[in-house]
Amino acid sequence: MSRLFQHPLRTAPLLTAVLALCAGASVYVISRVNGPFWTTWIDGSTLAALRAHAVSVPLSQQLPSFFHALALFSATLAVTADWRRGRSVALSISLIVVVAMEFVQHPVVENLCRAAHRCLGSPFQEYMTDGTFDWFDLVAIAVAAAFAFSACHPMVRSSHDHPR
User: Fold this and answer.
1) Reduced to 3 states, what is the DSSP secondary structure of residue 124?
2) Which helix (H) or strand (E) segment is 103 a member of?
3) Could you tell me the CA-to-CA distances from 77 to 109, 150, 152 in Å, in that order?
4) Is there a contact between 5 and 14 (Cβ–Cβ < 8 Å)?
5) Beta carbons within 8 Å of 133's beta carbon, 6+ residues apart
6) Confidence (pTM)
7) Which tens digit of pLDDT belongs to each residue from 4-49?
């Protein structure tokens, strides 16, 4: 595992991934007081007081999608730092996964997948029903992908400077 951090092209993407996950989680904690994080662990009167003091974060519905996609893409860049040609393919696969996970929350797709619930299992079903499809989430994912793909191209050029 320590070898993972020794490659100079892995440090920045790993740090970006960790910071993006923390930023996405903080949006849930700060501005989504009605979410399952709070309602599971906090009693009703405390929850009411928290709701009265909740911070309204602009784009709080889309920021987690942006940060979580950015974290996945950054982690992909870190893991594929040694790949000279496959990095864009790996990022494309990550993009497909993130977009697919957003689309399974669409009501039409969710209804189609309910029929296949026996095959998919409970955690996947909970993700579909607890999540909310939003076209702006797809925009946030596209912006995160643009950041990752733009970061990928300088890495391809500089990866020739850093032999294994």
Assistant:
1) helix
2) helix 87-103
3) 30, 11, 7
4) yes
5) 102, 103, 105, 106, 107
6) 0.73
7) 556 666 788 888 999 999 998 888 777 766 665 566 666 666 666 6
**CA 65 – CA 148 distance, rounded (Å):** 14
Could you read off the pLDDT of 101-116 as tens digits, one per residue? 898 888 887 777 766 6
Which residue, chain included where needed, has tokens 């996950």?
21
Query: Average pLDDT in the 60-71 region?
Result: 89
Residue 63, CB-side half-sphere exposure with 13 Å CA sphere: 18
Long-range CB contacts (within 8 A, 24+) of 145-153: 145/69, 145/73, 145/91, 145/95, 145/98, 147/70, 147/73, 148/70, 148/73, 148/74, 148/76, 148/77, 148/91, 149/88, 149/91, 151/13, 151/74, 151/77, 152/77, 152/87, 152/88, 152/91
Beta carbons of 155 and 77 less than 8 angstroms apart:
yes
Place of tokens 């391809």: 156
Q: What is the pLDDT of residues 141-156, one digit of tens each?
A: 999 999 988 877 655 4
Check if the beta carbon of residue 139 is closer than 8 Å to that of residue 62: yes
